[in-house]
Write a structure and sequence with these properties.
Length: 316
């Protein structure tokens, strides 16, 4: 068999159509053309063709992975997941390329001869190659050697982004990095990019923002909810408690008094349907304490509304 023609493909000038014995055989990238010194008149056999096609197959996988990495840093696991996804797509893409090349043929007779050639020589088809674990490992190793995959660098960058922009706590960041395939030692090293002063600064920003959005909570309830909010953001209990011990929550006394009255009136209407007298008072105290109101403030409210409660007791 002899290479009779090499033709630049119309849709991609970096790829070439290879004709053997005046019939299209396969398409390859320019890098593979150069690597195997493919030229017109070159005598080829089945073994050489298979080597060329396998190299082309591997090259395309590598190029797509480079393109994937061009959008930003990726962890090794993310690259592996991407390669696994490409495995499923590879055969359909190669079959589509063959279909497009058929359309490029200059005449219907060429289409016919090409179709017949392809049927007789299905061993020339890219789809005959499968992605093995060894290929994926070769690509991963090459990317590591080029420092295009480095989980520590990835982890450090991820920590800085999540800490400075999203203000996430170390625990949540650690969990997310683990989901991206980083091991515990690398995660521990990456978290060194999150200094203590930044944690305190983030806690203050998160606390200020949360308090502004929760003005209609009692002071005690606000403190409880704030603690839970910061914990859900991924900060550990010790650093939260240390922060809250030195953090002063500013509340409007008049607003707090109005909130107590509104909750008290609402609970009174609910509880007075079933209870009266001492039992009603006891139920109101329990309910308002659960809402986070101060015991002494509750007692003051009960005294202010003693007539209302007394009238309920007398009506029964």
């Amino acid at each position: 068999m002899k290479i009779s023609k090499i033709q630049v493909q119309k849709k991609n000038k970096q790829r070439y159509s290879i004709f053997i014995n005046n019939q299209f055989a396969f398409g390859i990238d320019e890098a593979i053309l150069i690597k195997f010194a493919i030229r017109k008149g070159l005598e080829v056999d089945q073994k050489l063709i298979e080597k060329v096609l396998e190299a082309e197959f591997h090259y395309q996988f590598y190029q797509k992975t480079l393109n994937y990495l061009s959008y930003g840093l990726k962890s090794e696991q993310e690259v592996r997941d991407y390669l696994a996804k490409m495995v499923k797509e590879s055969q359909s893409e190669k079959l589509e390329e063959r279909h497009n090349l058929l359309k490029e043929s200059e005449s219907s007779s060429q289409k016919s001869s090409l179709s017949n050639f392809s049927k007789k020589n299905s061993r020339f088809d890219y789809a005959s190659f499968e992605v093995s674990e060894s290929l994926i490992e070769q690509i991963i190793d090459k990317l590591k050697t080029q420092n295009l995959i480095n989980d520590l660098i990835y982890g450090q960058a991820y920590v800085r982004t999540q800490a400075n922009i999203n203000r996430k706590g170390p625990r949540n960041i650690s969990y997310e990095l683990k989901m991206k395939g980083l091991n515990d030692l690398i995660i521990e090293d990456a978290l060194m990019e999150y200094p203590e002063d930044l944690k305190r600064e983030n806690l203050e920003i998160l606390a200020d923002k949360y308090i502004k959005s929760k003005k209609r909570l009692s002071l005690a309830m606000l403190k409880t909810k704030l603690y839970q909010h910061l914990n859900q953001k991924g900060y550990d209990r010790i650093i939260i408690q240390t922060f809250l011990d030195n953090y002063k929550i500013e509340v409007d006394p008049e607003l707090q008094e109005n909130l107590l009255d509104q909750e008290g009136q609402k609970l009174f209407r609910k509880r007075s349907k079933k209870y009266g007298g001492y039992e009603l008072k006891k139920r109101l105290i329990v309910d308002l304490r659960q809402k986070g109101f101060n015991y002494q403030d509750i007692q003051n409210w009960l005294e202010d509304n003693e007539n209302m409660i007394k009238m309920k007791g007398e009506s029964e």
